[in-house]
Specification:
heterodimer, A: 7-stranded mixed sheet, 5-stranded antiparallel sheet, 23 helices, 20% strand, disordered C terminus, B: 397 residues, mainly alpha, 15 helices, 3 strands, 3% strand
Chain lengths: 622, 397
């Protein structure tokens, strides 16, 4: 194939010259660049290295405020405040160890701490998060800040930063609900729940703050600041705005919460209470006594204060007895025994048993409290007067029938396992059964196997039974609403900062029990009579109360620890909108301590004016 | 002045279908320089981008994949006879123009300029491929007119054929690439044998055009250059601008990065200019500054030497080519590489305006890497054909 003009090439002198010129041009261009590089890197390299070392970026975290926590009516329960924190940038501290030590000493004096402690903290934190400021003290006074700023030359590397701290405007009210914040742990960072959280960020570590952390925490912003060798800002390179956290609306009713806590505080003994809407499980109030002021946790609490708050000799204020109490429930358990007896056909609502004041089984005499005897009675009346013998007989019948009837119903109604409330730390409690005790006996952990007496005691809420007020409130709610075992929940709605709903929190009932209407009406009429009719165990407490309630007292014997006072009540009795469970350690008879406290909570809920004296003695002991 | 520099013999062309096992005749020095630069690029990108990308090896991994694709194309091209491209000159030229017009029509924009077309998995930059197509087509046009190389008409026609795509690329706007187009045309004319006086006239015209664009047009109220382009053109003259978004600042940071590398470099972890993000576009426009900071004068010198090796081989292949078309291709490709290296590195070290053209094989980018390897494949083809002709395996008319 021939292509015109494409000749066999011969390098003529002319072409050689031109190629040489091209080569020359290339040589010159490369030479220019080489010489320039020589100039930049070899001749002035030190100067540019110094310039590069002056070029430093500091990424400053712009903290996002956490969302507020409000009650169902919008009352702010947990708020934010800004505080001043003293920080130090380790890489900006003096390189000379002696001068650095002097600065640490000065700083420790200003901040009121020990130099060794500061040194250790700086060393530890800068290992965890290099190039980040180490916070030495949060919430320092303005005087301290002004002093540090006036003497800036004596404190190189020290900075004052604004940080958000939690504020609890109502002090102890709701203290056991909110929980605390703390720095995210390395383990948490691996969890997808904490996507977007960085080491050093503070997240909810307990209570509601933990449970709803993903809504409450915002996303921190960041600003990249270019600084020179002295750490002076030279300009902002970029900024990412922080996104504030979302507002959390709780089902809590501030009035109910406050009434509950002040009723317990007024009685002055350790205890807990729960107020719940039996229709949906919304918790209207939940508290424990003694309480504490959560504001002490806002800026990090000292070890000694923390120890005091956990000390049992002090009543362990941090313990939340409403969900962590492990108490026998006394006669308030009779609602569960009644349900079991009626549902399993041991009894009908009109079955009459004889209460002669005591029941002898296997040589042991089980007696009514206070030596009372009520004669022949059916279940509603037995609940009204709280006949122990009636329920001893139920316990004995159940034991003879076999199949753990009462235990089964106790578990179905929510005892013996956590209720699933949106609050960490809930305990399971204990429903004693033959299998449980016999297993312990085989392992030599107890002195005897299961006997009918155990079931007799169990039927009246004595013995090994362990439950907390929340479990009892859940059980009573299931009867109140006709058989739904609700999931108690404190969170109600996630909202934006203007209160517009973003997400409703409604976990729905855990399970439905087929409670016969006759069972329910027999139990509620008995509880109604107990609180309203002459001879009822809590009738004196609710005398004159405008709402007809249905409630049961409980007095559990705890040996050396005194009597545990219980009261669980639903109101109004015909269409319950609220269930209240109160327990008070060493409170004596249910009607003396727990019932008056429950009345105050109900009064706050229904807006009933006028107080009744706490600790009215009942005419019926149980 | 030579009148007729070539003997009146033509060279036969191998049909494409002929079996060829020529791969072992490629230029191994050229290949070594190519592979050396690719290796340097991958190592540098790995450190330059460690702190910015979601996965630290994102850019280096992808650059490696582009290089493999490009190397396959290079070997393929090296094993066929480049002379065939001469017949396709019109198609190649039209194809090039089509691509450039296409990008003006539907291209995506970064920082105000339309340079690429969005393809699945890939952002294709047609003006990169355009460079090689221009070399192939324009060399053929020059060859067609080689008998009349001293005519004014030849020079003006060739320059016109080059200037049309140049102006279109400039309108994207992509000033750097348009400079490459012009330099390719000048190199082809130069090697083709155009008279010296024609070059003098072209220089005069260029000076007049520059005056028009930079002085008269803005005065008349119709500026041709966009604001950022003018910034770039003038920024290297005053680098003390503290605004991080300004060109002067970027240049200053690049220079600081290179200078701070000193003789042997700061290593990966101490290279604060790169790691802390002071150096803008550290994986593309300023990749040479990363080399300078990390590997110092030694590393930058090695990279430059590898480029010098490429240019030397291009000129060497030019002189041994079996035909003039091969010589012209070698000249065009050599001019293309030399211009890119000098403009890019010159911008990094602060002696040239920043025009945003990639450093061949070093800068991150699929279009650039693959097209550069295609060009080197053509260069290898010229070399292979020359050796075969010298061995007498190809018939000579």
């Amino acid at each position: 194939m021939y292509l015109p003009g494409d000749k066999r090439m011969i390098v003529t002198p002319s072409l050689a010259l031109r190629v040489a010129i091209l080569g020359g041009i290339a040589l010159v261009l490369f030479a220019i660049i080489f010489f320039r590089l020589w100039y930049l890197q070899v001749l002035s390299g030190d100067k540019y290295l110094a310039e590069a070392n002056d070029n430093r970026v500091r990424e400053v975290k712009v903290e996002a405020p956490r969302g507020q926590i409000v009650d169902r009516n919008g009352t702010v329960l947990v708020d934010n405040r800004t505080a001043l924190a003293v920080q130090v940038l380790p890489q900006r501290l003096d390189n000379d160890p002696a001068r650095r030590a002097r600065e640490t000493r000065r700083l420790a004096q200003v901040l009121g701490t020990r130099p060794g402690k500061l040194r250790k903290q700086i060393l530890h934190d800068s290992k965890v998060l290099p190039f980040s400021p180490v916070t030495l003290k949060t919430d320092v006074s303005l005087d301290t800040v002004l002093y540090l700023q006036e003497n800036q030359t004596r404190f190189p590397g020290v900075d004052v930063e604004r940080v958000f701290l939690r504020k609890y405007p109502h002090d102890a009210v709701g203290a056991h609900l909110f929980g605390t914040l703390g720095e995210v742990t390395k383990k948490q960072l691996k969890d997808s729940r904490y996507n977007g959280v960085q080491l050093g960020d503070r997240v909810g570590q307990s209570g509601i703050e933990y449970q709803y952390d993903r809504y409450l925490r915002g996303r921190n912003g960041a600003s990249r600041i270019q600084v020179d060798a002295m750490g002076r800002p030279k300009g902002e390179l970029s900024i990412r705005d922080p996104v504030p956290g979302k507002q959390l609306r709780l089902a809590i009713d501030f009035g109910v919460q406050k009434a509950g806590q002040s009723a317990l505080t007024g009685f002055g003994k350790p205890g807990g209470f729960v107020a719940m809407d039996p229709r949906n499980g919304q918790v209207l109030g939940l508290g424990s006594n003694p309480s504490f002021n959560p504001n002490v946790f806002a800026k990090g609490v000292s070890a000694s204060v923390y120890k005091r708050l956990q000390d049992p000799n002090n009543g362990a204020p941090l313990a939340n007895r409403a969900i962590q109490g492990l108490y026998p429930t006394g006669s308030s358990f009779k609602l569960i025994s009644s349900t079991a007896a009626l549902q399993s056909g041991l009894l009908s609502p009109s079955t009459v048993l004889f209460d002669g004041g005591s029941l002898n089984v296997g040589g042991i005499s089980f007696r009514n409290a206070g030596g009372a005897s009520y004669g022949a009675l059916a279940l509603p009346r037995a609940l009204q007067v709280s006949s122990d013998v009636f329920f001893y007989r139920v316990g004995l019948m159940a034991d003879q029938r076999g199949g753990d009837i009462i235990q089964k119903w106790a578990r179905r109604l929510g005892l013996g396992h956590p209720t699933g409330i949106d609050l960490p730390g809930e305990v399971a409690g204990l429903v004693p059964s033959p299998a449980w005790r016999n297993r312990l006996f085989r392992k030599h952990l107890t002195d005897r196997p299961w006997t009918p007496g155990d079931n007799i005691n169990f039927a009246v809420g004595q013995g090994d039974l362990q439950a907390d007020p929340l479990q009892m409130a859940t059980a009573y709610s299931a009867i109140a609403n006709g058989g739904r075992v609700v999931t108690p929940h404190i969170g109600m709605r996630v909202e934006d900062s203007d209160g517009r709903a973003l997400q409703e929190i409604d976990p729905g009932p855990k399970r439905r029990l087929g409670i016969a209407p006759a069972t329910r009406s027999a139990i509620i009429s008995g509880l109604r009579a107990a609180a309203n009719d002459p001879g009822g165990t809590s009738e004196p407490v609710f005398r004159g109360f405008p709402i007809t309630v249905a409630g049961k007292t409980g007095t559990a014997e705890r040996g050396a620890q005194g009597d545990q006072s219980w009261y669980v009540v639903m109101a109004p009795y015909n269409d319950p909108r609220i269930v209240v469970a109160v327990t008070i350690e060493r409170g004596g008879f249910g009607a003396e301590a727990a019932a008056p406290a429950a009345r105050r909570i109900l009064a706050a809920y229904f807006g009933v004016k006028g107080k009744k004296a706490v600790g009215t003695a009942g005419n019926a002991p149980n | 002045m030579p009148q007729q520099p070539h003997t009146p013999f033509g060279t036969g062309v191998q049909p494409f279908s002929e079996p060829r096992v020529r791969i072992f005749k490629i230029d191994f020095v050229l290949l070594a320089a190519t592979l050396g630069l690719i290796a340097f690029s991958i190592v540098t990108l790995d450190s330059a981008t460690a702190d910015t990308a979601a996965t630290s090896h994102y850019f280096s991994m992808r650059q490696g994949i582009y290089a493999v694709i490009g190397l396959v194309l290079m070997v393929t091209l090296a094993s066929i006879d480049y002379s065939r491209f001469r017949e396709l000159k019109t198609g190649l030229y039209i194809g090039m123009m089509g691509l450039i017009v296409l990008v003006l029509g539907l291209g995506g924009a970064t920082r105000g300029s339309r340079r690429w077309i969005e393809l699945p998995f890939f952002r294709f930059q047609p003006s990169e491929l355009g460079k090689v197509l221009l070399v192939l087509a324009l060399s053929a046009f020059v060859l067609d007119r080689v008998r009349y190389i001293n005519d004014r008409q030849t020079t003006s026609r060739i320059m016109l054929l080059a200037l049309v795509p140049t102006l279109l690329v400039m309108a994207q706007p992509d000033l750097g690439t348009s400079i490459i187009y012009v330099n390719i045309a000048l190199a082809l004319l130069f090697v083709g044998g155009t008279k010296w006086t024609h070059f003098a006239a072209l220089a005069g015209l260029a000076a007049a055009a520059a005056t028009l664009v930079l002085v008269i047009a803005p005065l008349a109220g119709t500026p041709v250059l966009k604001g950022y382009q003018k910034d770039r053109l003038t920024a290297f003259l005053h680098k003390d601008n503290a605004d991080p978004r300004s060109q002067g600042y970027q240049l200053n940071q690049a220079q600081t990065a290179i200078g701070s590398g000193r003789q042997t470099g700061r290593g990966v972890h101490r290279a604060t200019q790169t790691r802390l993000g002071f150096l803008p576009e550290s994986h593309t426009d300023f990749v040479f500054a990363v080399v300078g900071e990390r590997f110092g004068f030694v590393g930058a010198g090695i990279v430059l030497s590898l480029y010098a090796l490429l240019i030397w081989r291009a000129l060497r292949i030019l002189t041994i080519s079996k035909n003039l078309y091969g010589a012209l291709l070698a000249a065009g490709i050599g001019a293309m590489l030399l211009t890119q290296v000098f403009v890019n590195v010159g911008g990094n070290v602060g002696i040239m305006p920043i025009t945003g053209i990639p450093l061949p094989l070093m800068s991150y980018g699929g279009s650039s890497v693959i097209v550069t390897l295609v060009a080197l494949g053509i260069l290898q083809s010229v070399y292979v054909q020359a050796r075969e002709a010298a061995a007498g395996k190809t018939e000579t008319i």
